[in-house]
Write a structure and sequence with these properties.
single chain, 301 residues, mainly beta, six-stranded mixed sheet, four-stranded mixed sheet, 18 strands, 5% helix
Length: 301
C-alpha cells in the first residue's frame, strides 16, 4: 500500500510545498505516540515545463528500520492547496530521494540528507534535476553491476547492500497477492515461489547460470521486468537465526528448499574462473559454483 499526497502548486514559478509522512510502507509502529514520530515539510522545486505529474519519494534511514516510500500527485499551477500527512519514523541522517519522469521520458531526481525529530515538523528544500545522466561520465560500474543514475551521483546496482540492516524481520515483507513479495527495507520485489510454475513452491526445475539468467529475463510475472539477483541482494533474504532453510521470512517465501540459488555475481580470481556466487539456504552461506552447475533460481526486480 502506498500513501498518496498532493503537492502544493503556486501561481508563480514551479515551487511546491508538500508534507511527507508515514505510509503503510514505513517502519513506525501502529499507534506510535507523537514522541516516536515526526514530519517533513519539503519545498520542492520542479524544472519548468518538465511535465511532471507524479513524484515518488523514498526515505532511507541511516541505521535501523525500513524505508518509507510513497507517491505524490502534482497539482497544476493555481491557488495553493494544502495536504499534510505526518507520522514519519524518527531517524537522524536519513536520505530523502525524490524521483519523477518528465513528459519527454527523461529521469528527474533530487536527494538530500534529512533529520526527522520526535514530535517535530522540519522543513527542507529539494530541487529535481532532469536529464542529468551521471552514468554517461566516468564511473566504476561494470556490466555485472550496471550503473543507475541517481543525481548528483550514481550507484552500481547490486554491488553493495545500500539499505539498512533489518531489525524488524518478517514484518519487512509484504505479499502483493500476485506471486510477488515486496521487501520494504531494500525496495526490492521478489518472486514468491521458485517454479517452474511461479505459484509452485518447490524448486523442481534447476538451471545453469545462463539458463537461470534467461529464465528470469523472460519471467514476466506481474507485468514486471525481472532479473537474477546479485550476491548482495540474495544474501538480504538470509537469516542465520533460522535453519533449514535460513530464510528471513519463511512465511513470505513458503517451502523454500534448503538448496543453493544462483546470483548474477561472478567470482573474482584466477582460481574461480568460470564460477559465479551462489547463496545456499540450508545454513545460509555463499559459495562459488561452476556456471555449468544446475541450481535453483529466484528472480527479483
Amino acid at each position: 500500500m502506498t500513501a498518496r499526497v498532493k503537492i502544493l502548486a503556486g501561481p508563480i514559478g514551479r515551487v511546491f510545498w508538500l508534507a511527507l509522512a508515514l505510509s503503510a510502507c514505513s517502519s513506525a509502529a501502529p499507534g506510535a505516540s507523537d514522541s516516536e514520530v515526526g514530519a517533513l515539510v519539503v519545498a520542492l522545486t520542479l524544472p519548468a515545463d518538465a511535465g511532471i505529474s507524479s513524484v515518488d519519494y523514498r526515505i532511507t534511514p541511516s541505521a535501523r528500520g525500513r524505508q518509507t516510500v510513497g507517491a505524490i500527485s502534482v497539482a497544476g499551477p493555481g491557488p495553493t492547496m494544502s495536504a499534510t500527512i505526518d507520522g514519519l519514523p524518527v531517524a537522524e541522517g536519513s536520505v530523502l530521494t525524490l524521483t519523477a519522469t518528465g513528459s519527454d521520458g527523461s529521469a528527474c531526481v533530487g536527494s538530500m540528507k534529512v533529520d526527522i525529530g520526535a514530535g517535530e515538523t522540519r522543513a527542507v528544500s529539494v530541487s529535481l534535476s532532469c536529464g542529468v545522466d551521471q552514468c554517461a561520465g566516468p564511473n566504476v560500474c561494470t556490466s555485472d553491476y550496471p550503473c543507475e543514475n541517481l543525481p548528483p551521483s550514481y550507484r552500481c546496482r547490486g554491488q553493495f547492500a545500500d539499505w539498512s540492516p533489518s531489525y524488524s524481520g518478517p514484518s519487512d515483507f509484504t505479499a502483493n497477492g500476485d506471486g510477488t513479495v515486496a521487501d520494504l527495507r531494500s525496495g526490492l520485489v521478489w518472486q514468491k515461489t521458485v517454479g517452474p510454475d511461479v505459484y509452485q513452491a518447490a524448486c523442481t526445475t534447476k538451471y545453469t547460470l545462463a539458463a537461470a539468467t534467461a529464465y528470469c529475463g523472460s519471467l514476466g510475472l506481474a507485468g514486471a521486468t525481472w532479473r537474477l539477483p546479485s550476491k548482495a541482494e540474495l544474501e538480504s533474504l538470509v537469516d542465520d537465526t533460522y535453519y533449514d532453510p535460513t530464510m528471513l521470512d519463511p512465511k513470505a517465501f513458503p517451502n523454500t528448499p534448503s538448496l543453493p540459488f544462483w546470483t548474477s555475481s561472478p567470482c573474482a580470481g584466477a582460481s574461480n574462473s568460470g564460477k559465479a556466487w551462489a547463496v545456499e539456504f540450508y545454513e545460509g552461506f555463499s559459495t562459488p559454483a561452476p556456471v555449468s552447475n544446475e541450481l535453483c533460481a529466484r528472480c527479483v526486480h
